[in-house]
Design a protein that fits this description.
Structural class: alpha+beta
Radius of gyration: 17 Å
Helix content: 25-40%
Largest sheet: 7 strands, mixed
Distance between the termini: 36 Å
Length: 200
Amino acid sequence: MPQTDCYLCRADVLEVAEALFANGATITPDIEYPTRETLVISNSENLRQVLDESAISLLFVLSRKWQRSPLQLSSVMKRGREIFHVSQTEGGPTLEIFYLKPREVEGTLAVPAGFISYRNRFWNPDTSQMESAPKALSDAYRTVRSWLMQGGRTVVRPHRKLIVTKNTMSSGLNLIDLKKHVQDKPCIINPSEISEATGK
């Protein structure tokens, strides 16, 4: 699965999303759905609202240019009711954006790493077979990666390299490797609090 790890922030997600929306793409957030009907976001205003009002971290980007079948949902029982989640391996395929909100770790605001990715192969329920991801999807992935790299820098962690976007750099927030802080109970920070803390 092609994947680019990166320290990205809310501004990056919105900038990338706006460019994708302008090219006809839509975004479906990975949230708990009460039915098989998913939320489809097609503009930045609605995406801002969802980012502000929920704790989502994974976004599925769809476009007619690369979509071959509808998204598929799986269900589980939770607190006595059935809830639905988007399947990452069936339907689509999708470009995935994984974004974690800044959080407080050891008394300091920090940005956890996220990523962009797509799956080389996916299960197409319409044809009942595994299929390769369309070229349009791999092209979109490389385009988004280049957007995130512009004006940024690269940091090296054990066994991987990560992009630090220009927006993350300008935020002045620390970078955190959550794998080294698995015992912490981080506090999610709202965008307004970040602005007050950094003066931006």
